[in-house]
Amino acid sequence: MTAHVDLNMARTLAKSSAVSVELLPLVARFSLRAGTSEQAALSKALGLALPTKIGQCARKNKLEVLCLGPDEWSILAPEDQAVKITDACEAIYAKAPHSLTEVSDREIAVQITGVKATDLMTIGCPRDLDLLPVGEARRTIFDGVSAVLWRDGADEYRLDLWRSFAPHVISLLETGCTELAAE
């Protein structure tokens, strides 16, 4: 059964000696769509080169940009940077038309870390996680729920989930954490 989860407060959701599941602090999130000819101007406006290979991430300071498709990126930044990002992209819109949509309220992030992190992820993710390079991310599903899976370290993952599906996925991760602790 899926229980109500407060998705606005970062905290540990489940923890064992093998794996930890944490709800991460909220961040500013944007969906960016742009053609090839606009990418250079957008890179300059954002202060980092937009990655061009699907799954690649670019990072500078606390700004993260993930290439989700040939003309699509996900941008994550501290909440206090949202206006700066919006203003920078708006300033170049006339010369570099694009679609920048803030989706901060749509998604949350859960971090899974520990020596059994990969084992825990396999309870709902059909991907071969050994093929996901550290520092990259992919769209995938987790128990039928659309998600973006980041591999931040050898034993460290992050799942970006729509809020409406988060309680279901969190419940599965908590159960799996308990089961792995019993091994």
From TrEMBL:
Domain of life where this protein originates: Bacteria
Pfam family, one: SoxG
Family annotation (InterPro entries): SoxG, TrmE/GcvT-like
Name the record gives this protein: Sarcosine oxidase subunit gamma
